[in-house]
Amino acid sequence: MSWSFRIARVRGIDIKVHITFFLILIFGALQWAGNVPDNPLEGALFGVVLMILLFTCVTLHELGHSIAAQVFDIPVREIVLYPLGGVAFISRNPDKPWHELVIAAAGPLVNVVIATILFFVTGGLGVNFLDAPAVLAVLRDPSLATMLLWLLFLNITLTLFNLIPAFPLDGGRILRAVLAMGLGQTRATRIATTVGQIAAVLLGILGIANGQLLLTLIALFIFFSAGQERVVAESKNVLTSLKVGDAYNKHALSLEIGDRVSKVVDYILTSYQPDFAVMQGNTIIGVVTRNDVLRALAEDPIDRYVTEIMQRDFLRVEAHRSLDEVRDLLIANGAQLAAVFDGTRYLGLVNLDDISEAFTVLMFMRRQRELRQQRSTVV
């Protein structure tokens, strides 16, 4: 079951709303219903509209990131709106630091443009920003000026908050991009994520001290996301060192065009291999996965030919590509596996589990090497 549903599509990017998003609309309604005791229904409606407009600005922020990524030929799958904000699911990290700098800065820049427009519009409606008591009074009464003022201040807040140099916020990504220009991606990531986790701890302390649950939750999100990004960067560095031609399953079982589903079931039970190439001579004509078999058995218990359930369109990769490149391709294409080729010669299949296992082995070997070096240094 999908917990998100599409509400729009822009430049090929699905804009989706997570089912939990409606919690923020309820929050806005309750907040403003309490602010207008004489007419709580009007206040609740005002709160809902304000939240919708605020998240329209959040969507534009994420579109800023997404369109900048598309300029550099980086696919963007979707934008999903959650109660705490929006997330643009960009298929991979930029290859060049200045690409990441532009992509990260594009989001806050959108909010700056929106805030600038709202500043002049609210000024045109007679709001005097030098008269603080008058501005505060306007913020409490539902009106067009109130809504525009709230949107102005919230866009300023979004800009400033996102520019905090705490990974994975935009400021943290900008910091990493700048550092990477001189230090390299791996070291820059290590520094930026460490700064992000320190900032998260400080935000968490501030949130707990002031009883701000939302700020505390955001701090936790930043802390764990920074740690996860460090792991991703480390895996990227490790997987770049190995070619897919050295890591695919060289002893995999394969199927012939006359084989039936029962044979695949037998292979799955006895070999624990999840994916199989369907061969015609030395040519691969399709692939069958464990999910294909389960789906076929659920639809029809008849022992069908594997050619009836196989996937004829599958991802092809060259053996000289790094495991990191292949992983990015699999994720970008939403594919479970890829067929590895040396020119026109088919070699075998590789999937994300194979790449994860290769990463585990490589990391173990790297740590063992580091330990040996440390022992030799001590001696």
Describe the overall structure.
This protein is α/β, with parallel strands linked by helices. Helix content is 61%, strand content 16%. The protein has 13 helices and ten strands. Strands 1-2-3-4 form a four-stranded mixed sheet, covered by helices on one side. Strands 5-6-7 form a three-stranded mixed sheet. The longest helix has 32 residues. It starts with a strand and ends with a helix. The mean pLDDT is 85.
Furnish the topology, listing elements before pairings:
Layout: E1 4-10, E2 13-18, H1 22-35, H2 40-71, E3 76-82, E4 85-90, H3 97-124, H4 132-140, H5 144-162, H6 170-183, H7 185-209, H8 213-239, E5 254-256, H9 261-271, E6 275-280, E7 283-289, H10 290-299, H11 306-309, E8 315-318, H12 323-333, E9 337-342, E10 345-351, H13 352-378
Parallel strand pairs: 2-3, 5-6, 8-9
Antiparallel strand pairs: 1-2, 3-4, 6-7, 9-10
Helix pairs in contact: 1-2, 2-3, 2-5, 3-5, 3-6, 4-5, 6-7, 7-8
Top keywords for this entry?
13 helices; 379 residues; alpha/beta; 10 strands; three-stranded mixed sheet; four-stranded mixed sheet
What Rg is obtained from the alpha carbons, in whole angstroms? 26 Å
Distance between the termini: 58 Å
Low-confidence stretches are none
Assembly type of the shown chains? Answer: single chain
Q: How many β-strand runs?
A: 10
How many DSSP helices?
A: 13
Mean pLDDT over the residues: 85
- Biggest sheet, open or closed, and with what strands and sense? 4 strands, mixed
The coarse silhouette is globular
> What is the spatial order of strands in the main beta sheet?
1-2-3-4
Structure classification = alpha/beta
Percent helix range: 55-70%
Spell the H/E element sequence: EEHHEEHHHHHHEHEEHHEHEEH
Give the strand content: 15-25%
